[in-house]
Amino acid sequence: MKRKQSIEHVRWDLALRYRLIETVAWWEGRLTTNHLMQSFGISRQQASKDINTYIGEHAPRNLTYDKHLKGYVPSKQFRPLFIDDSADAYLHLLNQNHERAPHIEGLALAYAHTEVLKVPDRSVRPDVLRPLLRACREGLRLETEYVSLANPAPEIRLIAPHTLIYTGMRWHVRAYCEKNRAYRDFVLSRLRGVPELLDTSDFGREQDEGWNTQVQVVIEPDPRLKPAQKALIEVDYGMQDGRLVLDTRGALVQYVLQRYQIDQNKVQAKAAAQQIVAANLEELQRWLYS
């Protein structure tokens, strides 16, 4: 209990260094003071102090010094306190920080053998994003011009945004739309001009049913696949008992299906091309748009 409490009260700057200590040691197998020095611009003395403090006050059994490697290595009893030691977490870290790899010597080997497909984000202007952030934070209405495929000409919209959403391909803002009298998603790159902040809105996140309703998306192998093929797909997606259950919000169901490349309006002719399906698609219909 004391150990957990001490971790919770670690200063944020030290917590960042401890996270790097654990990440480098666990995934790269060798930690030196140079890793901290180059990543945080601190002196060798400070880096050595950070490592000793991490060992002495938080994780005395996690690291041992290897004279041959001239660095600290994870012990057999290594138990991370500041990071998630799952492979998914590390791969996500590589994805997030790929461009910052030169600044983290400890991860250099991993980055040198990793290539992340870069999909350009849709153009989002700072003068659009800043008022949106404030409106979300303070619960304000705002007036903006918006274009869509249905209406390519700019149209004035009065909206009350509450949350920014990234779908993996582009950014949206979830907002109450006074024109439609309902909550909608607006693509940030389709906002025109500079949004004008107005007064406080009565329609916030709490009133958004789609946002507050928890929904499960159940994914299974295409039933047309052979048993051996289904077993392969189950491993690919980390399924349990032949299915993958994803917890999400009603408002995000459409994006979840898109990320898994499941088109509710079309089924691939070949099962090998389809691979997976939403087993509870009928239950999800109320959250889908055409």
Describe it.
- This protein is α+β, with helices and mostly antiparallel strands.
- It has 12 helices and 10 strands.
- The strands form 3 sheets. A 5-stranded antiparallel beta sheet has the order 6-5-4-3-7. Strands 9-8-10 form a 3-stranded antiparallel beta sheet. It has a two-stranded antiparallel ribbon with strand order 1-2.
- The radius of gyration is 24 Å and the shape is globular.
- The N and C termini lie far apart (52 Å).
- The relative contact order is 0.08.
N-to-C order of helices and strands:
HHHHEEHHHEEEEEHEHEHHEH
The general outline is globular
Strand tally: 10
Estimated helix fraction:
25-40%
> Nearest-angstrom radius of gyration?
24 Å
| Beta content | 15-25%
Mean pLDDT: 86
Strand line-up in the sheet with most strands: 6-5-4-3-7
User: Largest sheet, if any?
Assistant: 5 strands, antiparallel
Discrete helix count: 12
- Determine the structural class based on helices, strands and strand pairing: alpha+beta
Q: Could you name the ranges where pLDDT drops below 50 across 5 or more consecutive residues? A: 101-106
Q: Termini distance? A: 52 Å
Domain WYL: 127-194
Pfam families: BrxR_CTD, WHD_BrxR, WYL
Protein name: WYL domain-containing protein
Domain DNA-binding transcriptional repressor CapW winged helix-turn-helix: 13-96
Which characteristics define this entry?
three-stranded antiparallel β-sheet; WYL domain-containing protein; WYL_dom; alpha+beta; CapW-like; 36% helix
